[in-house]
């Protein structure tokens, strides 16, 4: 079976990355889809027991291919690796026997997207978010008041969980995190970070330990079923 290839290089744009915020939503008229199966309605229902509300995802705004599901995925990466295919808008958690758990993602805009190999240095539940100095310099009125950071909560851009990506022991300022902007899954909208539905980042956060290998690809390389 074909091996997945990848193009890797050291990050050169970390100053833009930690923003994790979106540009304006692009709207378009889409044909009606069949009702969402009960299985996925339950998967993306409101999450109880959290310190802040986690609302049900609005699945009417998301292409069904981006719902969390197990798929065939053939790769030379070891089991437990996170592989992010930015072109296809999928994140894979590599499993056994040529299978992977696949999540739909939103990715960074052209020129700000992460590419390379990193590690999950640490994970956070309901993390704080702080705009970068570059963001503050570009939009002081918007980000200046947040220079000291934003407290956790339902409006925090990082959502209920975040995985912090380091490369060679250095913080890349890129995160894998949640979002309440359901419409952004499958799109290239953020300032560089990799975003999942809140239910999906909670699920992923619980499956991967600190030190997990993360491979972020830009070339279209996904040999999946």
UniProtKB/TrEMBL annotation:
Gene Ontology molecular function terms on file: glycosyltransferase activity; peptidoglycan L,D-transpeptidase activity
CDD domains per record: YkuD_like
Domain of life: Bacteria
Gene Ontology biological process terms in this record: cell wall organization; peptidoglycan-protein cross-linking; regulation of cell shape
Domain annotation L,D-TPase catalytic: ranges: 80-217
Pathway in which this enzyme or protein is active: Cell wall biogenesis; peptidoglycan biosynthesis
GO cellular component: a single term: extracellular region
Alphabetized UniProt keyword annotations: Cell shape, Cell wall biogenesis/degradation, Glycosyltransferase, Hydrolase, Peptidoglycan synthesis, Signal, Transferase
Signal peptide: 1-17
UniProt keyword Metal-binding, yes or no: no
Pfam families documented for this protein: YkuD
Catalytic-site annotation from UniProt: 177 (proton donor/acceptor), 193 (nucleophile)
Keyword Methyltransferase: no
Cited PROSITE patterns: LD_TPASE, PROKAR_LIPOPROTEIN
Family membership: Belongs to the YkuD family.
UniProt xrefs under PANTHER family: L,D-TRANSPEPTIDASE, L,D-TRANSPEPTIDASE ERFK_SRFK-RELATED
Name listed for the protein in its UniProt record: L,D-transpeptidase
Originating organism: Tianweitania sediminis
């Amino acid at each position: 079976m074909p091996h997945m290839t990848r193009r890797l290089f050291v990050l050169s744009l970390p100053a833009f990355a930690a923003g994790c915020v979106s540009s304006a939503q692009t709207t378009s008229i889409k044909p009606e889809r069949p009702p969402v199966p009960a299985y996925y309605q339950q998967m993306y229902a409101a999450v109880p027991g959290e310190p802040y509300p986690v609302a049900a995802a609005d699945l009417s705004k998301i292409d069904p291919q981006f719902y969390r599901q197990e798929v065939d995925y053939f790769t030379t990466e070891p089991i437990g690796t996170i592989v992010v295919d930015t072109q296809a808008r999928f994140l894979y958690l590599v499993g056994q026997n040529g299978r992977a758990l696949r999540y739909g993602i939103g990715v960074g805009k052209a020129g700000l997207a992460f590419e390379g190999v990193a590690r999950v240095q640490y994970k956070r539940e309901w993390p704080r978010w702080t705009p970068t100095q570059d963001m503050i310099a570009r939009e002081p009125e918007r980000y200046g008041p947040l220079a000291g950071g934003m407290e956790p909560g339902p409006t925090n851009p990082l959502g209920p969980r975040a995985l912090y990506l380091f490369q060679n022991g250095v913080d890349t300022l890129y995160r894998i995190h949640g979002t309440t902007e359901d419409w952004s899954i499958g799109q290239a909208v953020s300032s560089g970070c990799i975003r999942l539905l809140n239910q999906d980042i909670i699920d992923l956060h619980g499956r991967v330990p600190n030190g997990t290998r993360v491979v972020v690809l830009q070339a279209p390389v996904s040999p999946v079923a």
